[in-house]
Structure formats: C-alpha cells, structure tokens
Amino acid sequence: MWSLLAEDWNPNLNLTRKINKLIKNTASGDIIVFHDSEKARKNLEFLLPEYLKFLSNENYKSKVFE
What we know:
This protein is mostly helical. 42% of the residues lie in helices and 6% in strands. The longest helix has 17 residues, at 41-57. The protein is globular.
C-alpha cells in the first residue's frame, strides 16, 4: 500500500504546497504514488523532478515500480 499520494492528476493542485507537503511527510520506507497519464502530465513534470532532487539531497535511495 502507498504512503503518500502526489495527487498529480488534480488540475487545481497547488504545486508549491504539494511538493512542500510531500517533502515534509517523507519518511524512510514510504511508497509515493505518481501517475503516468496525460491528465497528470503538467503536474508530474513539476513534482517529480523536484521530489527526486529532494530525495537525492537527503541521501534517500529510490526504486521505481511500474
């Protein structure tokens, strides 16, 4: 089961607020859901690189599941 939901499918998503919430609530072992869809594309293009940068800066290791 997932721990955090990016809500990247939401066209009214406040991206700055969401990335800050994801960062604040991230803990080791979390499973974060991002969506690979046209509906989520705009938000995903902002959120995912920012989140991966955060994980790298904090020395988290990540794994992609499809």
